[in-house]
Amino acid sequence: MAAPLRLFLVDDEPPALNRLQDILSDCQDVLPHTVIGVAQNGPEALTQLNEQHADVVLTDIQMPGMSGLELARHLGRLHPRPAVIFCTAYDQFAVDAFEVHAIDYLLKPIRRERLTAALQRARDLAPPRPEALAQLESRARRYFSVAERGRVRLVPVDQVLYLKAELKYVTLRTRDAEYLLEESLTQLEQEFNDRFLRIHRNCLVARNALTGFERGQDDHDAHWLALLDGIGEKLPVSRRQAHVVKEFKRGF
């Protein structure tokens, strides 16, 4: 006999969580499971799931701060990765879910039969692909997720000063620390175009952290250096991106 499914539930509305748990209780005889935890937002869910493994995460999509789609992208960094079932009151997400062939969904109000079928499929589904989730999400992430000592750590996007490509990684710098991302700088630029500015082929800086520019000593590739609030490090501006200095003076 297969082990009971380990489920984790995420919804910002307590009545919705309670209803989901009630329906799950009605499914117990058909599909043995245990609810290992609940959370009302994405960061809280990820904190708990760093400590205990879930086979399936059932999450609302429309939540303040971090959507269920963004949460699923961060869950993809867990090992092993849980399967994800989205819960939504909006059927346009249901269509998208089927198109990527990697996730399931429950349309609210959730029905017992539909929930049982989704959980049975989730047992066999591969975890959602990050690129598929990125296609479903219409807004930029609020957080980056980085692996740190076997855990997944969330770094708020608004705390990031710059993103610099180095070999196969991207260094993410805040005022207090550095982290490594396994993401493409080009894709990050596309996702966060309104928040980060390219100053070099290997570097994006946060627009709101940029305080000015000064002349550099090296006149080969970088004759301007970008100054960022909160750190003493000065970042080279390539000749190709030198136009950002004039744009900064004009207030972009």
Count of domains = 2
Q: Determine the fraction of residues in helical runs and give it as a percent range.
A: 25-40%
Largest sheet: 5 strands, parallel
First-residue to last-residue Cα separation? 63 Å
Strand content: 25-35%
Strands of the widest sheet, in order across it, are 2-1-3-4-5
Count the strands?
Answer: 15
What is the name of the CATH class of the largest domain?
Alpha Beta
Question: Considering the protein shown, what is the CATH homologous superfamily of the largest domain?
Answer: Response regulator
Question: What is the residue-mean pLDDT, rounded to a whole number?
Answer: 88
The shape, in one word, is: elongated
Radius of gyration: 22 Å
What is the annotated CATH architecture of the largest domain? 3-Layer(aba) Sandwich
In terms of structural class, how would the helical and strand content be classed?
Answer: alpha/beta
- Could you give the order of the helices and strands? EHEHEHEHEHHEEEEEHEEEEEH
Low-confidence stretches: none
Number of helical elements: 8
CATH fold-level topology of the largest domain: Rossmann fold
